[in-house]
Structure formats: structure tokens, C-alpha cells
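call fold(seq) -> C-alpha cells
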Amino acid sequence: MGFAANEFAYTLNAYLSDSYTIYASSSLTALAFLRGVVSGVMPLFAHHMFTGLGSNVAGSVIAAVATLFCVMPFVFFRYGKSMREKSRFARQSVEMNEKFGDE
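ret:
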């Protein structure tokens, strides 16, 4: 689970940095905040999940989530450009970077 979470975080950091270019700090701040909120909420329901579902089922749920995290770098690689083109702000950021990036 730790490897999958780190791999997803690194890939998402790179994706956000490439998408929002000069505004990447804002997107990375939002990502760090969201990661902190999720980290704070996990202990609140983890005990109930393992108690209610049992160790085997709860562990399988976490393993399934970790497997999905490992697939995400490939999803970003395949669909990243089309996702960035759908975002008005990301498209504007890339245009500004192309216009003023070489100066």
C-alpha cells in the first residue's frame, strides 16, 4: 500500500506540475492539503472497517485500492493530454508557458 501511495503521489505531482506550469505551487498545495485530510480521516474509519468486515475482507479492500493506485501512472500517461485539454485553466497555463517560456 505504501509503494502504491508513493507511486501515485509522485506521478500526480509530476502531472500537476506539467499541467499548471507556473501555477504548479497552487495545485501542489491543494494536493498536499487533500493528502493531509485523507491521512487524518483514515484512522477514524479504519478500526471500524477492520472490526466490521474482518481482517481478510478489509485487507482485500485496501489491496484493491493499492492496485488501482499502481495503475494510475499508466492512466495519466495514456489520457493525461486529453484531461489537460479539457481543463480551461491548464490549457491557458500551457499557452502562456509556450508564449513566454523562452524569454
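Residues 2-100 form one domain.
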